[in-house]
Request: fold
Amino acid sequence: MKNSQIFETAKTEGIENPPEGNPVRCNICEKRCTIAGGSTGICRMYTASDGVLKEKYPGMLFATYPVSIENIPILHFMPNGKLMLVSTIGCNFSCPGCVSEMIIKNTDSVARMMKKTLPWEVVEAAKSEECSGIVFCLNEPSVSYYTFLDLIRTAKENGLAAGCSTNGYMTEEAVLGAAKHLDFVNIGLKGSSPERYRECGAGSPDPIFRNIRLLHENDVHVEVSIMHLLGREDEVLRAAKMIGDVSREIPLQIMPFMPHDESQRDWRPSVAESEELCASLGKYLDYVYIFNTPETERLNTYCPSCGKVVIKRKFNGPMGAKVISYRDGGICECGRSAGIKGEIRAEGFVEPRHMGGYRSIKALDAIETHLAVLGVTDSSKVIDVWIDTVESGYLRGLHKKKSTAEGFFDDLHHFASLAGAEDSYMAMYEKYHPVVENISERAEGAEKPPVYSIMAKPVLPLFVDKMDIDLIRIAGGHPINLDLGLDDKSKEMEIDPAVVNSFRPEFVFVSGKRGDDEGFSTEEWRKAGFDIPAVEKGNVFRFIYPDSDSTFSWLITLMDIANRLHPEIFSFDLDYEKERLGI
Reply:
């Protein structure tokens, strides 16, 4: 495609305070910015020179690594497929709570992490990793449109599938230019009203629903994701109806809003509230899913005719899923197809915990949070630490360290040393580590009751690599989850109740916030096949997660566990401790 098909030379007549030089109008996204030499558009990713629109960072990639297709997330195209993920930086939106905010803000600083990468190099890397395609993900492809086009065109020319994740706010010209090279796309909706899109710095959702239809009509496999904000269910209902008007078979992925800070907590729906919304969408769509929680069965693909499971999946971190089992070809035993495109691989790709899809972004975001606690907020220093973390390979082991209290302090110390904030770390260590030492020492000689921890319902044990498990150990309990041994690499998430019964757990702790009492009813436990002392004695508790932005809030969780397990030893006043520790 020639540039002239995407932008037009803008006339300066009628433009208030027209920019100097020969301005051009960018027709890649619907904002259609007018750009001249020395300036950029709203996304800050394009410039103009001699009347020609140019990318600010042409051919520069922020990330290139293998990923499972379910972590894009795409569910109905090549299930269990392995793709080479690529991304640049920047976006044409400014959404509150954006999961990729760290590569959208301060683009000039983050650009230091980008590397010049030719399309054929991406293709070669994909083939060497035995990937079946490439996918542009993590940030918005329209802000690097020519780089994006080169990548997907080269992929197709070399026999690879090509896809992307996008907010869908491209012009019709840009969408049709990309559609000829695309096999699949996930369009991330913010809602369905102009008001919601204005909150994200856009004008109207109309171009996006137009593009959903255009892509579908041009034989591109389309899936749609949408955020569910509590109290804004009408946004999802309207969107589902408009998607259904294009095709009932377009999968819709519900993403319950995850608060970015304390001010956004009221927007977060419980799992039960998202499930209730999900159930109401069946009149418009055949396939509706819920992400971002292990507490729902709505990651499975159910046959629209008979309701039986065609593909069973499990939760796999933020915006991620893993296939557990499937029927051949995605065909239900009743004979109905579940609309799966492409071959279903027998085994999926298992990426390191912090290297899958949006999980890598969340990991870097967590490092930024650690640095902020240490008083390091200069973006240049943060980028230096990110670069060191990625290039040294430290990112791959980050989750394992975060799974224990001591590992948490080790991580904090590591990042403090990289950022020159050793004094800040020592002050933090001397303030907070004695709490861990005190509880551990006082619980040392006590009898250690067996404790079972679950993810919101009885048959879902909490993974062994969660800090909550280590907190139980420190507080003087024996976490039987360590004996059960399930983690995110396990094929199944559910446990046989008879196995748990054999350990006779005296306490149960429940993780998660469903908004109902699931996991607490004695009748429910018995119905599920559990016969354990914890239920008989009423020793089933929720983990306490303080409504706090403090990275040390887990210390309050530890104190509460200690109070529950050993009231003869511990009697922490949690409100007092929050104030004393500044949590």
In short: Confidence is low (pLDDT under 50) at residues 1-20, 514-519. The longest strand covers residues 221-228. Residues 67 and 351 are 6 Å apart (CA to CA).
